[in-house]
Amino acid sequence: EAKKLDSISMEEMLELSGQGAKVIQIRAVEFANKYNVLVRVLSSFEPGSGTLILQEEEGMEDAVITGIASQTDQTKFTLHGVADTPGIASGILSPISDEGIEVDVIVQNISVSNKTDFTFTVATSDRPQVEAVLKEKMKGISYDELIIDEAIGKVSLVGVGMRSHAGIASSAFNALADAEINIQMISTSEIKITIVIAEDEVENAVRTLHKTFNLGD
């Protein structure tokens, strides 16, 4: 069972909200961060002091992983056999961005025989529009096959403590391997690791990572 946090940094809350944590609207956190406003999130069902969202302070790095967020209803697009020429990423993603669609995890494989695979994820609700863009609006980019997988989910670990602790990613990957959960894609930033997996494995992955990083009560 997840435990209540007494405090969390604005940066961590922005990352968690952006990855599907249903705690507070991400725009509210962005506004508070911009104007340096402290935010306290309270429960509608239980009394208590809630969780304080504040600017990062000295000592907050003690918690290596602050929280885990997950999302289902994700779709993975893979363009197989793309001609490996300058401007591939822009040529694929710009028409999608022009439609107001947010692309999340992106992976481009190493070129083999001047061809590569380009993979990215979007919300499943955007699938029809993205598919139409890839088939109709990409100019000058050829590929052998378009592979679409709707049975995708993602799990994100967030914590400012990642900045000063090595081995977090390997611990997470080892735990998922022990649970026989296959990792399809990985994206990292300074305080976040996002792992793309099969949708039906998301719940097990969250439980496994909670246990690995002692995030439960």
Please explain how this structure is put together.
This protein is α+β, with helices and mostly antiparallel strands and about 220 residues long. The chain has a domain at about 75-150: 2-Layer Sandwich (VC0802-like), CATH 3.30.2130.10. The chain is about 30% helix and about 30% strand. It has 6 helices and 9 strands. The N and C termini lie close together (about 5 Å).
Question: Could you say what the CATH architecture of the domain at 74-150 is?
Answer: 2-Layer Sandwich
In the CATH hierarchy, what is the superfamily of the domain at 74-150?
VC0802-like
| SSE string, helices as H and strands as E | EHHEEEHEEHEHEEH
The CATH C-level name of the domain at 74-150 is Alpha Beta
Question: In percent terms, what proportion of residues is strand?
Answer: 25-35%
Query: Uncertain runs with pLDDT below 50, 5 residues or more?
Result: none
- Please describe the biggest sheet, giving its number of strands, its sense, and whether it closes into a barrel: 6 strands, antiparallel
Tally of helical segments: 6
Average pLDDT works out at 86
**CATH fold field value of the domain at 74-150:** VC0802-like
In a few lines, what is going on in this structure?
The chain is an alpha+beta fold and 217 residues long. It is 28% helix and 29% strand. It has a domain at 74-150: VC0802-like (2-Layer Sandwich).
